[in-house]
Amino acid sequence: MKILPIENLRGEIKILGDKSISHRSIIFSSLANSTVEIENFLHGADCLSTISCMKSFGVDIEIVGEKVFVTGNGLHGLREPKNILDAGNSGTTLRLLLGLAAPQKFLTTFTGDASLIQRPMGRVIQPLTEMGASIVGRNGNKNLPITVIGAKKNLRGITYEMPVASAQVKSAIILAGLYAENPTTIIEPAPSRDHTEKMLAAFGVEIEKVGNAIKIYPAEKLFAPEKIVVPNDISSAAYWIVLAAVTKNSVVTIKNVGVNETRTGILDVLKEMGAQVELENLRESGGELSADIKISSSKLRGIEFGGAIIPRLIDEVPILAVAAAFAEGTTIIHDVGELRVKESDRLKAIVTEFNKISRGSFEATATDLIIHGGKEKIFSACKTYADHRIAMALAVFGAAAGGVEIDDSDCVKISYPNFFEVLKWEK
Fold it and tell me: What residues are annotated to the active site?
């Protein structure tokens, strides 16, 4: 696909439902004893993988137009899948469902696509094993396919200090902790996105948070709301926020975006870089904040950041790298080694492909990304490595610069199926 340069980006953009919250709305509703209507669900490939897997556990899930209706089997009503569960490309599906499968009394086997089978699962398997789960997989229980052997007795609650902040790993432990004999405490090195804690609290689960420690109490039953309205995804909004910020004569408003404070690191960084970003019409639904985000053309400057803010923007690093390429000066992003084990090695992808558009702008160490802003930008043909976030970041980079040709546009269906339709409409 060839993307041409864009000028004068103006108007309102309607984006899709939040991917993280969509996953969790399906899983948690499946564990209740009533029917839940889910509105604004993200019908992307990753979230559809979660629906498929939960159906295999015997849950009744019906898609009616844009809505999804989940009739839960109760906390102890899941059934043994008849076949291997395929998580596709979705690390969220796999890691959360490993936590859910760990305390069940039956066998569950997971697989995934060519990318997911290469991604490390030891970080979630280790704490689940400490809780008493029996899990086996390839390469020393680190890679798919992975089998969770039926638990012979209840799991035990543990206190687990996470070596790396990860919402997926945390959520897996929390789900397993619902079934444990005693409370489980998770200590994060820095706060990661907390959609699991917020939504489970809305389902009546007792969760305590003190500093970076989260304590989950075993549950007997989940009490689901009749309806869950999923806010729009800030990770999807990020592409339009950056495109408007770096494109001349642009003013864009993105409606009803989730602005949970564990997800708004990108807004904090862009504001520090000098971006004109405003939140309007702030409101709350189901414990989650949302707002309309207004972004205008901005003169950006390079900054240096890392540490505790990284879990709040880890998925947005590729598009932040694009913003930094248009900034004055050098931007250094520390502590992003996690990007090397995403759908692709994103640090390598950024350096290899983004430098084709802006030569000499990008370099990386094992854990840091350095962007030298203000260099000349040219049209180029680039590879996406079948990574949705690299594909969308490249598309924005090209649209804001001299254009780009990418080898794989279909991979965006994982998280943003109509991304290129919106980009074409804006053009």
Answer: 315
